[in-house]
Amino acid sequence: MHQLGVHIHSIDEMTGIQALERAHPTLPMKPGLEERCEFEYIRHGTQCLIANLEVATGEVTSPSVGDTRTEVDFAAYLDTLISQDPQGEWIFITDQLNTHQSEAVVRLVARYGEFKEELGVKGKSGILATMASRAEFLTDRTHRIRFIYTPKHSSWLNQIEIWFSILMRRLLKRGSFLSKEDLKSKILKFIDYFNQTMAKPFQWTYRGKPLHV
User: 2-40: per-residue pLDDT in tens?
Assistant: First the structure.
């Protein structure tokens, strides 16, 4: 939680995570030889991780690993988060993917915010009419629950992307997974380990100066 009592969470999905089982054991490092990973592997399917990073603490909270990442999945994930403090103020930082600006998300925010006006009909009228109208509602600064969307092609500004790269380097790149269930279990265990031993707020070093090519 932010020091002013606002929950600020950086959130996104990591899709197509492959459960790859190495066909042969990895050869350990020896004097003069690097660790060698077997290049042949067995595919066991994929999983999708929906995760968020609490900006104030650097912890990854309430992760969800499953087969899909539909707008219903994303809205259900948000519901799990917001229900932890249903009367609190929440700010979600994410990209402009259509599932992040969906009818399901608008209806969820409206329900928690006790929004009394009609939402309209998706594709036809009101707040639900278009993605732009839904985004305008979801980013409204007067709402207790609102979104901040990163500019297009700038998802690297979202801090959860930094953590996804940590997950890739520390677990996924060198791991061997016997099934989708094994992959899910190891991801969740890594998140527990990360929160207990490595989590801390990320400090930006880029000062916003123009980049010259």
Answer: 446 799 999 999 999 999 998 777 767 778 777 666 678
53's tokens: 């990073």
- CATH 3.30.420 describes domain 6-184: yes
HEC sequence for 13-66: EEEEEEEEEECCCCECCECCECCECCCCEEEEEEEEEEEEEECCCCCEEEEEEE
Separation of alpha carbons 42 and 44, rounded Å: 7
Domain ranges within the chain, ordered by starting residue? 6-184
Q: Which residues contact 8 (CB under 8 A, 6 or more apart)?
A: 2, 54, 55, 56, 91, 93
DSSP state letter for 94:
E
**What's the Cα-to-Cα distance from 16 to each of 19, 74, 90, 102, 184, rounded to whole Å?**
9, 16, 28, 21, 12
Residue type, 40: E
Please state which of the ranges 68-77, 131-140, 197-206 shows the lowest mean pLDDT.
197-206
Q: Would you report the helix, strand and coil content of the chain in percent, each value rounded to 5?
A: 30, 25, 40
Q: What is the pTM of this model?
A: 0.86
Tell me, what's the pLDDT at 209? Answer: 62
Q: Which residues pair with 12 in a beta bridge?
A: 51
Cα-based distances in Å from 208 to 101, 128, 172, 176, 212: 27, 35, 31, 39, 12
